[in-house]
Amino acid sequence: MTEPSQPRITYARRLGIFSATMAVMGGIIGSGVFLGPQIVAARVGSAALTVVTWVVGGVIALAGAFCFGELGARRPRAGGGYVYLREAFGPLPAFLYGWALLLVIATGATAAVAVTFASYGVALLGVSPHATLPLAIGAIVLLCSVNYVGVKPAAVTQNVFTILKLAAVAALIAAGLFLTASPAALYRPLPPSATPGGVAHVTVAVGAALIPVLFAYGGWQQTNFIAEEIIEPERNLPRALVLGVIGVVTVYLLANVAYLRVLGAGGLAASTAPAADLMGGVLGPAGRRLISAGIALSTFGFLNLVILVTPRVFQAMAADGVFLPWLARLHPVYRTPAGAIAFMGAWSIVLALSGTYAQLLDYVVFGDWIFFGLTVASLFIYRARDLTRGEVGFRVPGYPWTPALFVLAAAYVVVSSIVANPKNALIGTGLLALGAPVYRVARRNQVLA
User: Fold this and answer.
1) Is 434 helix (H, G, I), strand (E, B) or coil?
2) Intra-chain end-to-end CA distance of the chain, in Å
3) In CA terms, which of 13, 78, 178, 213 is 20 to 30 Å from 284?
């Protein structure tokens, strides 16, 4: 007599619309809003064009959120983009996406953000810089442990730190908009030699500035990785994506207006730490300490988000038989991809210890936008295939122009990255291509098993 089979363990739907929206916003806002806006100002050369560039980037980000909203409503499954690519283009492109996340994109970002958090942490605590790496590793271990014991504790952690990072950005905005005596800097232009002239030059300048802007807006797509753990994902996931992206666009625009009001376009372009310069100029040394604490909180929250969502991709790959089989199992009590969380944490720590994560990210970061564009392009295939399945609850407004706009933007980022540094792109392509033989070995082992 055979024993009855054990019931299959599935993900638990425990995240509501608020937690999903916080995940969207937390996945976008890292340290970029505090450290990166000067690149945009330097490339466009005026306050007005700086704001215009962030608006254009926000429109593209919102187009992406609409597209991922419909994809999530059509296929509310753990793994997000991996699932969409597998169903639309086949298992190999999907595997290469997961391979890129595992090899560098997600794990390298985890290592980099952990070190950034630790760098600000040791400065705030006044301890030796030698404590940076141990603190970074400790943060990875701590957040992996929180995520291991359940999606709810992980989401509560995410909610708290997303609110704290929003409070830090709100303090920066308030200081720039309401605590500065004179807004004269907002209207102070760059020297004529640094200001682009003519429509063609302006177009090129805005186009170049869009690259860092689009990178700053990236991250909303990660919430689709946890679709199976969202309550009523067909309804709540699209809402969270749209609300979260609109919220971030609003925050980014207000932050840049605050920078420009205090520093001016020339001051922003010349600054290496605009948030610290703004807060220091308005509130003195206390303001610099306050914004340093805000950056530390923001990076810690972003670190938790990456550890929360990415293991779901590795679990989906393993469940498909193209990755380590033991990563497919969910914890019988916590219903989390426990093995995938531990695996990701361990590899991230290896990258942090090796010190190679920054260079590796430079090599493959353009690949993230290749998969962005392909994932949104899968919506055209779903629309064609699902004609007989009835309507979904959420549909992209302005279809097919909205997804087409996003695909073109993704192609622009990829081409621009290749043109800017063809050597890095070539090495990155080689790293991504290494996934093909790994995939073939995994498929062969699956057949033999």
Assistant:
1) coil
2) 25
3) 213
Token pair of 403 as six digits: 């997804």
Give phi and psi for 356, each to the nearest 5: -95, -5
User: Which DSSP letter does residue 105 get?
Assistant: I
Whether the pTM exceeds 0.90: the reply is: yes
> Comparing C-alpha atoms, which of 293, 371, 241 is closest to residue 124?
293
Query: Comparing C-alpha atoms, which of 242, 309, 232 is closest to residue 73?
Result: 232
For the segment 98-143, what is each residue's pLDDT rounded down to a tens digit?
A: 999 999 999 999 999 999 999 999 999 999 999 999 999 999 999 9
Contact 148, 331 (CB under 8 A): yes
Return the pLDDT at 181: 60
Question: CA-CA distance, 378 to 375, in Å (whole number)?
Answer: 5
Q: Which two tokens stand for residue 293?
A: 């604490």
Measuring CA to CA, how many Å separate 60 from each of 89, 218, 282, 406? 24, 10, 33, 6
Taking CA atoms, 249 is separated from 9, 19, 255, 268, 296, in Å, by 38, 19, 10, 19, 21
pLDDT at 291: 93
Chain position carrying tokens 């001016």? 264
Cα(335)–Cα(381) distance, rounded to whole angstroms?
32
Percent of the chain surpassing pLDDT 70: 92
Residue 15, strand partner residues: 230
- Calpha distance 296→34 (Å, rounded): 11
Phi, psi angle pair for 97, to nearest 5°: -65, -50
Give the DSSP letter of residue 391.
-
CB neighbourhood size of 214 (10 A) = 22
The residue count of the chain comes to 449
